[in-house]
Amino acid sequence: MAACRRVQRLLLLLIFISGSICSARGAKSVHGDSDNPADNSERGKNPAGEAKVMALEGASSVRRSGGWKLAEEAACREDVSRICPKHSWNNNLAVLECLQDRKDDTEIGADCNHLLWNYKLNLTTDPKFESVAIEVCKTTINGIKECAAEERGKGYLVSCLVDHRTNISEYQCNQYITKMTSIVFSDYRLICGFMDKCKEDINKLHCGSVNTGEKDIHSQGEVISCLEKGLVSEAEEQPGHYTIREDCKKAIMRVAELSSDDFHLDRHLYFSCREDRERFCENTPAGEGKVYKCLFNHKYEESMSDKCKDALSTRQKLIAQDYKVSYSLAKACKPDLRKYRCNMDTAMPRAREAKLSYLLLCLEAAVHRGQTVSGECQGEMLDYRRMLMEDYSLSPEIVLHCRGEIDTHCSGLHHKGRTLHCLMRVFRDKAIMEGHCQKAIQTLIQETDPGADYRIDRALNEACESVIQTACKHIRNGDPMILSCLMEHLYTDKMVEDCEHRLLELQYFISRDWKLDPILYKKCQNDAARICHTHGWNETSEFMPPGAVFSCLYRHAYRTEMQGRRLSRDCKTEVQRILHQRALDVKLDPELQQRCMTDLGKWCSEKTEPGQELDCLQDHLEDLVPNCRDVVGNLTELESEDIQIEALLIRACEPVIQSYCHDVADNQIDTGDLMECLVANKHQKEMNEKCTVGVTHFQLIQMKDFRFSYKFKMACKEDVLKLCPNIKKKVDVVICLSTTVRNDTLQEVKDQRVSMKCRKQLRVEELEMSEDIRLEPDLYESCRQDIKQHCQNVVFGNAQVIECLKESKKHLTPQCHQKVFRLQETEMMDPELDFQLMRVCKQMIRRFCSDTDAKNLLQCLKQNKNSELMDPKCKQMITKRQITQNTDYRLNPVLRKACKADIPKFCQNILNKARDDNELEGQVISCLKLKYADQRLSPDCEGQISVILQESALDYRLDPQLQLQCSEEIPRLCAEEVAAQEQTGQVEECLKYNLLKISHEGCKKEVLNILKESKADIFVDPVLHTACALDIKHQCAAIPPGRGRQMSCLMEALQDKRVRLQPECKKRLQDRIDMWSYAAKVAPAEGFSDLAGQVFTSPAKTYILSMLAMCVALLFLMGLLCGRITKRVTQELKDRSLDQPWVAPISKNRKGYIPIH
What we know:
This protein is mainly alpha-helical. Helices cover 63% and strands 0% of the residues. The chain contains 68 helices and no strands. The longest helix has 38 residues, at 1101-1138. The chain is rod-shaped, with a radius of gyration of 53 Å. The chain crosses the membrane at residues 1103-1126. It is found in: Golgi outpost; Membrane. GO terms for molecular function: fibroblast growth factor binding. It comes from Culter alburnus (Topmouth culter).
């Protein structure tokens, strides 16, 4: 039996060599034309060698006659003359080749078939067979030690020559072995032992008959082909498959292995692909499996015949089961397999070890570990990895486990790897995390390793060719970075739809095994072993959940030195690259998808655009199941430190980054600086809608947990633990810390409880929150209905919604109104938190208030409001804030402080009626104005009220009580002045002139109050002040303003005939006197204090006081005179009473007299 095996190997391999002869003859010689000049010339040169071959033929012939020829036998004469060229008739081997390689449509007689069979059988069993080999291959045998040492007479010598056929250089020896191999492999029954081992299986599978002569010569190759298909069917566990016996399996695989050198030796494939070989591989020489590879490469050409495709597929499936069936692969990788002990794993079954997949995994692991694998072997591996990716049917596990998916979703897509990508898409879309089919696909991706070279995936290569040529042309062809480049251009203008789909389908599976990214594996394998306790590439039996290793790596990627073990710099760079890519699609993060599968279906089923699923999960963070919430929270925390993980956001914000944040973006370590820069420049003209939405969304997510704001977390972590424990939401943490800072400041605590670095970052957070109402969840929730009702068309951002609510404050619900009032109170105390004011007046603040403390910015702007350099928009915004401040003294911190004692002293009755969080509509300020007119306020309070009076005199809108009471009268009487919007006091002047026409008592009272207030200071009457400015300069320059002094000066000048006032001033003064007179009539003093106040505030105060003094003096004189008279009368009565005893001074009555009883 050992001898049979050796002869079998010899004969099979000899067949390979016969193919090279046939191919050298050209297309016609393959079918029997022996017109080969090289062959003829060689024969002519060495007649001795030809004689030996002919001697062998004669000795082995049926008739044993020296001159016997096949062409002359009656059984074959007619067939030979009809089929074979005449010049080949004298060469029995040429005739034999011609008849057995004839075309399908050419028949030969049964007798000729039988004759040929006996000729070949006798030829292969003749003892002279080995003796001829000794003669022909003498030099070769001496050069090969193994063959020289073989025992003679048992067929071992020829078997050895077959094994070393690649080392045979002698032409005659090579020709001899080739001829004999071709003869044997034309009929499986001539292969030693094959018929005995597979006879039962042939009958069971109905592969043909073993009876001599029952089948023609062509059917013999079909028998082996049938057995090979049965072997494939068994591997794929197809329905109704038959289990071939182990001995026959080995025999079939051995035949396939020995026929791997020359496609002529695979008779079924040879006859099936003869025409296709001429069409596609005409110039490809036979031998070393080159024709096989050429045909494999053209397998999916449209002009390739179906019969040849089937034969090629069968051959490929055998290669997948045993890599040695590929001659070129086995030869090229033999040293590397031995070097890395890929075929010496004693723990692995021999059948598993021989599989192509095992070879690929073993050698790929060596490459990924940085070990050297020969270029020739890597080239062969590349070809077969591509072959596996192109045709899913070469992987029995996929055929077995994915039948249902293929029939349902992917039927008819077998072409160029499309079925495999269809299966990838099915699992990616369905998000199925388990199943035999998905595991089979994952295994195939591991075997083929397309991450190392995108060209392995033909479907991807063809779909992305244009993108690679434009976007990735700077990267060497076949470099692993090509896939990264494609991912970087995902969802950009350069990406095409078909490439996008193929890329995501492949990346879905690559992302589930960190080793499939060769760059990541190379840079991080040591870190993974050190930190995540992983093992080598080859230890595929170890089970790890998808993405577990990478999850471990990215958790350590952003650690500081104080937090423990960190990744190396190179590994961290690669981890960041992968994170940036995975952020494009939530399905590329296996851990996230696995833990959040339920929540994705529940909350985010309609979110199909790129990046929307993760945003959706972040939006519903509080509603997620704990496992999902944890992984989303961790990822969001990482994004806060390195926002570049959000690749889509960074791409959308590229213009802003280039203009304002390029210095920060270039930093290798982000630490939240880039997002802070984007927020600060959120409203620049370069900011597009996508970037704005993305930045705002991230800000909103940060409000859910203070850990999501990296800089805030790092600056305030210790303060939060100490001062605000058990508080998680960022907005609550900010409020807690801000309250602590404010209380410490008000109490003038020497050592503030909140650290300096936290206070600085806290300030940044407060400023960011002021930009969008959604960043203050409590306010937003309280005003959600009001926003829908009053601000429906107002977009979020730029604090526009907040501004809308402020303008609609009178119509807000109580709950919302209270929140807005509190917000305004905070903003007035700290104007830097007033986003709209700071935005609109940004340039004016730089111009006028660059050195002003932040708390006094609004006060500074108010003081410069009427400057010629003031921007109109800023001026308008300042006026809005003044209007707001005048509605309630609590919104004016400067006034509140200055009038701290005056307000409860004079306006307590108003405070008693007030409600918290509701404006007093200027009642307190109106109260203080009246006391100002009475000159009863403290100096500090008087100064502030004076400013308010001056401002409100110019713009009636700054007087909330006037606006409230005269809301109907102003449009009716002063429409033109309102429309002019000059803010020069014309509306107030109009109301004064139309005082008699005002019907509303409340409005009339307010106008009268204005007249009363104007007596106290001429600055309160802007129209009069403007008209008399020159006269004040000339007549009253030495008189200080305030307390009605300048007004009195003008009144005296008016009465003095020696003084000539300006006509306009004189007219205005006379008008004011008339108005005051009317005011006195319609609004007399309500009490002595009111009367005294009117007197002291009257411009004719001196005259009135003089008259009063004269009256008092007159009364005094009259009293003196009357007293003299009454005194004399009283004395007479006293004298008389002494004479009357009934008068006795016992007690005094209330008049001082004492009755006597």
